[in-house]
Each structure stands twice: as structure tokens, then as C-alpha cells.
Amino acid sequence: MTNVLILGGTGWLSGRIARRWLDAGAAVTCLARGERAAPDGAALVRGDRDDPVVYAALAARDWDQVVDISSRAVHVAGAVDVLGDRAARWTYVSSMSVYSDDETVGADESAPQHPPAQRGDEYEYGAQKAAAEDAVATLGPRALIVRPGLIVGEGDPSDRFGYWAAAFTRAGAEPVLLPPTDGRATQVIDVDDLADYVVTTSATGPVNTIGDVHPLAEVLDAVRTAAGHTGDTVVATEDWLVGQGVEYWMGERSLPLWLPAEMTGFMTRSNARFHATGGSLRPLVETIADVVADERARGIDRVRRAGLTRAEERALRAELGR
Fold first, then answer.
1. Tens digit of pLDDT for each residue in 121-147?
2. What are phi and psi of 170, to 5 degrees?
3. Contact at 8 Å (CB) between 184 and 258?
4. pTM of the predicted model, to two decimals?
């Protein structure tokens, strides 16, 4: 039986990875803090990775697979130091945020990265992931580093992709405010496709685990169709939106998936190695259908981590006279 240790295992992505391993017949142990439960069938060890002895019991045995998703380099390096010799294979879930070049279209895994974070540096996500990758890379051919971009699907806690499903659904026959889409692209991966890849691939080294590139306008139109929206769309200019305090990409008062025009490479990276090493992608329309259903179930007017509230969107459209 395959013995798998997941450093996490109770979150959105890590819980799905644990579930996939369990479905494959593995014995799964999850190390996590907090009150969230591990998937049924997995053993749960409670522990805080700031505690220097958190790995003591786990280091007493060998592991066929270790999976880590932490975005704190000190946690990743600490785990590698203590458990690296006990792991036959180590998978680290990094991020495309490690890349410093956001302009080159089709860039692959060799693209330049941000300098890795050093102890005492102010926290910066991409630099932390880069430093964590360096720690995992010391394991050589036993290590797989997956670099997802925007992960989407049912239960997404970031609310980015789901914002559009909610916005089109709640609007009904009213207009929906859009950012400029000409020349913009988007690139996402379904959380279940990512979990499947982590469990099934034999690849090592870094892999851009991301979906195919799609024009942003086509993706938004597919979400609109799935949501049954019958109203108009109102496209605002970039300068106007910025002037109104609307943020790019994520966060409160934002239009998710919208990026500055100069970031031509951020959502157009190469996923050729992902496909070549066994990665597969369900049709995007299936993911969109799942997200629309999930947003309806969770509540389209709930408090969100990304996007505009209905009131904010209406106020902005009123400023435009729409």
C-alpha cells in the first residue's frame, strides 16, 4: 500500500488531493492545524508548523509520497530538512507567481523567477514560493514542483472565477459591467484536474499545471450563457475603471480575471509539459457549469472575497448612464 503524507489535507485543494489518494487505495495521513476535518478514511495529525517538533512522530516512518502546499518558505524548508530523507517522492504545489516575467506570451518553466525570499524579508507570495521551491529542489529527482495559475471549481474560496457566475446569474435581464476584453486572455485549471495530476503523474522537476489559453471575451460569454443571463453587457474603459477605484484581478471592489494590458504573459503561459506528462483537462464548459451551480448553492449575493457587490456594480453602471 502506498503511504502518503499530506502537509495540509484539510483545505480546498489539499483535501481533494487527499481524497484522490484515498480513492487510489493509498493510506493517507494529513498534518494540519485548525478545526477542519480531513477526508473520511485519512488519519489526521494536528500540529502547528511553527512548532520545531511538529514532524517528530512523522519522521519515525518512511513515506512513499509527501505533498506540501505551504506558501511559507520556512515551513517548506523545515519539512524537507526533517522528512526529506524519509520520502521516496515529494510534490510541492508552488505557483506561477514565482515568475518575474509577466509579458512574454507562451513562456515555459525556464522563464525567469523572482529572487527567493530571505529570512526577515517582508512577506511576498511569489518570493516565498520561489524560496520554497529551492528547498524542495535539493531533493533532486525525487521532487515534483507543480506551478498552477488560477485554480477554479466548486467551493473555490478565492471567489475570482465564481464572481462572474454570480454576477451574470444575479443580473437576470439587467446589464452586467465588464472590463475591456480586447486582446485579453485567461487561463485556468479545474481543481479536480490539478488534484488528479498530482496523484497520477510520474513527472519530476517544475511543471506549469494550468489550462489552455482562451480569449477572456469567449470565457465570459460562456459563463453568461451557462448562467442564463439575458441582459446587455456594458464594457467600461480601463482608465475609467481605474479612476473609479476598481481593482484588477482580485480583492474587494475588483473585476476578477481582468489584468493590466501590459501583462500579456500572465495568463498565456505554456502548459506543454503538463500535457506531455499526463495532464488532462476537462472541457471548460463543464467547469463553468459546475461553478454556476456552486455559486447558486452558496448564494450569489453572499459576502465575497473578490468582485463587486450588486450595489457597487449598479452604482458604477449609473455613472456610465447604463
1. 889 999 999 999 999 999 999 999 999
2. -70, -25
3. yes
4. 0.96
